[in-house]
Structure formats: C-alpha cells, structure tokens
UniProtKB/TrEMBL annotation, chains A, B:
This is Ribonuclease Z. Zn(2+) 1 binds at H63, H65, H140, D211. It catalyses: Endonucleolytic cleavage of RNA, removing extra 3' nucleotides from tRNA precursor, generating 3' termini of tRNAs. A 3'-hydroxy group is left at the tRNA terminus and a 5'-phosphoryl group is left at the trailer molecule. It comes from Lysinibacillus boronitolerans JCM 21713 = 10a = NBRC 103108. The active site is at D67. The lineage of its organism: Bacteria, Bacillati, Bacillota, Bacilli, Bacillales.
Length: 310, 310
C-alpha cells in the first residue's frame, strides 16, 4: 500500500500546495487505486506522476467544500477521455451525486464507464473479501466524514517444505491445506493446515480524516490505526481560532494520534500561511506529543511495508 | 491592451497546454481585466503570473464544455478569498448561471463581491463609453458564441503648443478645445478645436472565437478586426474529422482571417496530438494563407500598441 499525496494545502491552491487529494494505491492488494478528495487540478497533479486515472475505482469525498471537490468533474471527464471503462464508485455526503450529475449534464460530458454513487452515512459503507471501510462524521462547519480503511488479515503462506516433509504430494492437496482445510493422506496420516501454513498476516488500518476540529469522533474512528492522515490547518498559537473555523492544529492532531494509540501520523491540509521555514517548528510541536509524526507535501509518497511506513 | 494566454489546449489538460483561458488586460484603457473562458486550473495558471483576480471585472464564456468552465467555481471562490470586493459580471450561454449558483450553494461558498450574470444572445451584449461587445453564435456541437470587442475611438490629444501659438491662455479654454468645442478669445479671435486637437485615435477590434467549425459566422463577427483569436484543434490532414467534431483546422482559421480582412490571427485550442516538433509545420500551413498568423502558448503575452501586435 502506498499513499501518494497529490494536494496537501487548505482552502486556496498555492504554488507549493494544491487543494486536497490523496491517492491510496492498492495495486499489490487489489490492483486498484482509491482517491480521497479531489480538489481543483487534481488531474493536473496526476499528469506529473505515473498514476493512471483508469485504475481509480473508488473516490471518497470527505465534505463538499470547494477545495475538496472542484477537481471532480475534470477528473471524471479525463478518466473517460483516456479510455477508462471500469466502473467507478463515488462515496460522499448527500448532495454530491446531484451536483455531479448536473455538472456532467450541463457540460454534455458523456462518460465511457458506469458511475455509481454511495451517499455516506455513519457506519460500514463498504466491505469485500479484502477491506472494510467505516465512515464517521467529524466536527467541521459542514457535514464532514472521516474514513477508516481496515484491510482484512491475509492468509498465511503455505510452508511447502514442511508439507512435503509430512508426505503431502504436489497437487491439489496443497491447495486445500493453503485454504485452511486439514487433509488425510493416502496412507491415512492426517495433516493439519495449522502445521503447514504460516500464521495470518495482519492487515493494515488507515484512517483518513476530513476537515475537523479536535474531537472525540476522530479518536474513535482512528483507534489502533496504523496510519492516521489528519488535517493541521493551524498551529498551537491559534487553537481557539482553529476550532471556530472547524479546523485542528498540529498539536491537536498529535493528541488524536496519541489517544487513538496509532502508529503513524501524517499531517496534511496545511494553511499557506506556514512558509517552508516554519515547517520544522510546526512538525516539532506535533512530535513533542506524538513522535511518529510526519508532514506531507504535494507529490510525497509513503509506502507501507512489513508493518512500517517508509 | 495585452492578451495573456493562460490555457491554449483542447479537451484535456496536458503538461504543455492547459484548458482554455485568455486574460485580456485593459489596465491602461479602463483599469480592468476581462477573462475569456475558464478551464480547470485557470487560477493555478494565474498563480504563476502577476495577474490579480480582483482586477477581473468581466468573464465571457463561449460555451459550456468542461474544458471551458470547470475552473470557474475555483476562480470565483479564490477571488473572494483574496479580498476581491468589486462586482464581477459573467457573460455566458443559458444554463451557466444556474450551475454556478448551484455549485456555490453546494460548496457553501460565500462571495465577498456582487456576482452578476448576463445570458448571452446574439447582438450587442455590452456597451459603455469605451467599448462595444457583440456576440454571435458559431457552429459547434453545443451552443457556442464568439465575442467581438470594439474599442471606441479615443479623442485626439490637445496640441498645447499650437493652441498657445494661437493665443489661447492656460486655463479652462484649453479644456473646452480638448472636448471638441470651438472657442472665442478675449480679442475676438475664433480658435477651432480641429486646428489644435490631433485626429481621434482609432480603437482596436478584437475577435475572440469559441470552439467552432469553419463558418460564415466567424468571418462576419471578425470583419476588419485587428486581431482574431481562433481555435485550431486540427490540421489540414483531418479537415472532415474537424468539421464532424465541430472544430476547425489551422488552414480554416487562416481562411477566416483572410476573408474577414483581419490584421493578425492568433491560433489557440490546439490538440495535444500536435507535439512541439509538429508546430513549425502547423504554423507554416496557416501562414501560407494568412501570413500574419501566430501560435499561442500557455503564458504567452501579446501586446497591442501603435496598431501593431508585439
């Protein structure tokens, strides 16, 4: 799993940070990519990467402020131009579907692929053999959701050497063991799956929060997460101001990660007020509370491997 | 007057050309800027210039395809963030106002300035002391307008030396002469305005066409224009294809300029199929018909001065 940050700024685009978009690459897991929020010019940011819009199968929108959605019509349209024909599902708050449909109709945009919508409410919004996704409403000035992506545990590897040592022949019996079924050999010996299959590998948990002030809901949604992506529009000098705008500070994001018992915290949605030379201090303040904190930047890529973030 | 091309590509943005937007700078004339079309990421293109969104007082939309309008919500919103408080008027086809209003409402975007709409139909759509603007429907696959901006003639300069030689004293009589009124001096001498005021300076005529196939209407709208901005999505090898998509070729654009008796032709809205090394040939084909043809590029600026384009 990789996190490719396409836009990490708040409100207006700046030369340094575009408005919100995060591509979660699940190519090894399910050969898909999932996009979280889609600010204006997200497709332009993608032009400077090797990401393929047609591989994006799901888009999750946290809330309907312009800096999180104004890139959607262009992205949907270009995915079509580029020959995307796989279905695409958009998860988002009430009102999004109508706006997208109005916008596509007005601009006479005919998509080459089926577009589906899921209106997000609290609870499980998606589940398949590999993932469960929960949504929870956060506290912003408009309805805004955070998403918790839980990868299901992966079946352990078949230990072929061990199986063969116990007399299991090459062939379909190996497959049965791998799928967790105990077997009986021709000579009557029983081979237990647990003896020849490594323990299940724990899946990851990723919590992508939308805009929010510091709140209990952010902690609840992120409990025990491997990675939290949390907004940090303000810093500790303007905590009251942050809350009044429905935003959080670097310090508050770190508290959420600490209280949720998370492993890693990535701060995004930074205000353009913070200049490059402010950032070391900005990061240090958060790390004072939660050491495993990182600042995101446009086009930064983080890789999750062996239960660590690189 | 300056033409600052912000986006000169067709359909999808590419690394080389963004979708359509042209800023017409009238700072010397009326201290305003007028924007023609506003593809996605027009505000991002502006970030790399010294152009100030709050100086934009009028936006003209040629048609409602996404590559001409998807940057509007973000531009309007950022103009507000940046403290714009001067009224802004959007001229565009039917349906645009409703979409903008729906989009601003959905995203809870509250503008700090009055936003007005003019639904464009053929004929004079704007007139003041300095300019007359005509709209004419072109031939595209959706309703699409071209705009003809005529600057009114500028009053000639007062030739002070000549006036003083004829005995006109400093003071209000000079102002009367400048305004075209003949005067009588204290000694009874008559001074004619035409003798001490230079001839009126001819205003410019600029024709900005939207997407269109080669058509009579483009020629009519551009008759005698100083500058025509014409799309050239295709080249002469695909003339039939161009027409079937409602687009024009480089050669057809040159024919429009020739038949309209224009002075300069600027080609924009180029397909990303044309690579940098194709462009000399692409330009030469048009210049074979209309020598004063230029290719536009993103961030190219043309200045109109002394009846010439630089």
């Amino acid at each position: 799993m990789q996190l490719h940050f396409l836009g990490t700024g708040a409100g207006m685009p700046s030369k340094e940070r575009n408005t919100s978009a995060l591509m979660v690459k699940l190519l090894d897991e399910v050969s898909e990519m999932w996009l979280f929020d889609c600010g204006e010019a997200t497709q332009h940011q993608i032009l400077h990467t090797s990401l393929k819009p047609r591989k994006v199968t799901k888009i999750f929108i946290t809330h309907l402020h312009g800096d999180h959605i104004f890139g959607l019509p262009g992205f949907l349209s270009s995915r079509s131009f580029q020959g995307g024909d796989e279905p695409l599902t958009i998860f988002g708050p009430s009102g999004l579907q109508q706006w997208i449909e109005q916008t596509l109709a007005l601009s006479k945009t005919h998509l080459t692929y089926p577009l589906r919508f899921v209106e997000v409410q609290e609870g499980i919004i998606y589940e398949d053999a590999h993932f469960t996704i929960h949504a929870k409403e956060l506290r912003h000035v408009v309805p805004c959701y955070g998403y918790r992506i839980e990868q299901k545990d992966l079946p352990g590897e078949l230990l072929i050497d061990k199986a063969q040592a116990l007399g299991v022949p090459k062939g379909p019996l190996l497959g049965q063991l791998k799928n967790g079924h105990d077997i009986v050999l021709e000579n009557g010996d029983v081979v237990l799956a647990k003896d020849v299959v490594a323990p299940a590998k724990k899946g990851f948990t990723l919590s992508v929060l939308g805009d929010t002030k510091y709140c209990e809901e952010a902690i609840q949604l992120s409990m025990g997460a491997d990675i939290i992506v949390h907004e940090a529009t303000f810093d500790g000098t303007t905590t009251d101001l942050a809350a009044s705008y429905g935003h959080a500070t670097n310090v508050e994001a770190a508290k959420v990660a600490q209280q949720a018992g998370a492993h890693y915290l990535l701060l995004n949605h930074l205000s353009a007020r913070f200049l490059p030379y402010d950032l070391p201090q900005f990061l240090a303040e958060a790390q004072g509370i939660f050491p495993n904190t990182f600042l995101t930047a446009d086009q930064a890529v983080y890789t999750w491997q062996h239960n660590k973030l690189f």
